[in-house]
Amino acid sequence: MGKLGLRAATGDDRDLVFSPLVGDIKIKRLTCMKQLGVLDTAFINLEHANTPQHVGGMGIYDPSTAPGGAVRFKGVIANFERRLHKHTIFRSRLVKVPGNVDRPYWVQDANFDVEFHIRHIALPQPGDWRQLCILVARLHARPLDMSRPLWEAYIIEGLDNIPGVPKGGFAIYTKMHHALVDGAGGSSIMSVIHDLEPDPAAVPQAEAVVTADVMPNSVYLASSAAVNNIKNTAKMVSGGVGVLRDLGKMAIGMAQKKIPMPSIKSPRTRFNTPVGPHRVFEAAEFPLADIKAIKDLCEVKINDVVLAIIAGGLRHYLIHHKELPDESLAVSIPLDMRTRRGMTDENNQVGSVFVELHTNIADPLTRLAEVYRSSQEAKIYGENSPLVDVLRLAGVLPPALTRPLVNTYVNNQLTQHLPLGISSVVSNVAGPTFPLYSAGAQMVRYYGLGLLTPGVGLFHLIFSSNGIMTLSILGDRDSMPDPAFYRDCVEKSFNELLAAAKAKQAESLAVASKPKAKAKPARKLKSSSSSAMPNVEKPVAKKARSAASSSTAKSASANAGVAKNGKVVPISNSRP
Quick one: where's region Disordered (predicted)? Predict the structure, then answer.
């Protein structure tokens, strides 16, 4: 493999030569740091041993598409290295300001060690799905080393007894701090670390150019912090005025019933207990065609179908444990704020809204219809409420103030006193519609993993690609000791919803195919005269017909009253 050139920014022309895995690398140093944005800083400030703030994913690969039908570990590392230079986040290391009096900076790490970030492991025998889930859960529970670039990758072999995994197949589990990437940006990162062809060597590669930064001294950081604190204070004042203005507009909209009131009475469940340091992982798979068929038949969105499936899964799970509340559970839905506030230089552009799942409704189609209504109301609320950006509060103040507050909040388990019970976070990420390859091996499945917060011990992540939708389940081990059973509950919910949708479709087709009765032709009135004069009704006959019409109207009115008192709903307004 050829040399990988590193171009760095320094004030001079001095070169630093060192020899990592791929050979000698020459670095010219410069100082071109980037300060973290408010929301990116929020995820750094929220970092805790029990709730590390990284997201992840696991792909499963078929090596038969690679040249020679096999993939070596060195080939996977070489593929990573060849593509790492295409995005600066892989070499971005966190540098804190002395005393934590200002937001930290990203610097390009000149001593980047790819072997530290990419590791090779294997499942023990027999190498089944349960073992893979346990391994991924343990890897995901471990916090990242905050002194290095904030990502890791694990190549996992030994998947010999997992149904559906190709012979010789392997998995790649990656995790990356949320300060570096959000859910909407994660799909672009996937395109960075994957190839579009099984033989990447056949694709001409441009010369790699990578920058590396000089470590700034404390004087520079302290002086920058003083200037930034003045700017931040001004932004906080102007931002506070803007928030108050937007809250006033939202209150007026709610009073006029133009903006729906969000539900704040959701019951608390086992998933609202304090989150510990251990995790569980499971996943279910659904044909994307079935999800779309349900969507089209019920005239809803794909996200609504997913929420209804999760609602049914939670309902079955909590009924089994005799813990289902009488009121509806609610979940938090991340929002991509790029369409709302425009593009910024922050890695994270995400907000959130609450959606009721209507877990208190047994019928799956009725539940889906109510979920659709709730999600539409949440969308309107999210477009008009400044509270969707509430997470930014954790990044506005200096880390010296925020970090102790976060530690006090988590260590003292203050989440138990929150009035609102959010049972889960549900994130939906659309994947590529074309095949992706790693070292020539085609990715055949991908499962996303979110993060847990101190008060929410369950995360669902949906990923769609190449006709398959995966629903990944990440939970706190104390809150959900039986993740495989919960996966069964989710699959049962999907099967119930699909069966109900097919039954509705069959009923609609049967009604449409039923022949309509032909109307009898009107009988012509015979005229006693051959003239074309109209047949004028006699006054007595007209009076009798008027009385008969009045009697029929009264009878219909009486029948309508019985129907109303008997709570008979018109078919056109009834839910399936």
Answer: 512-576
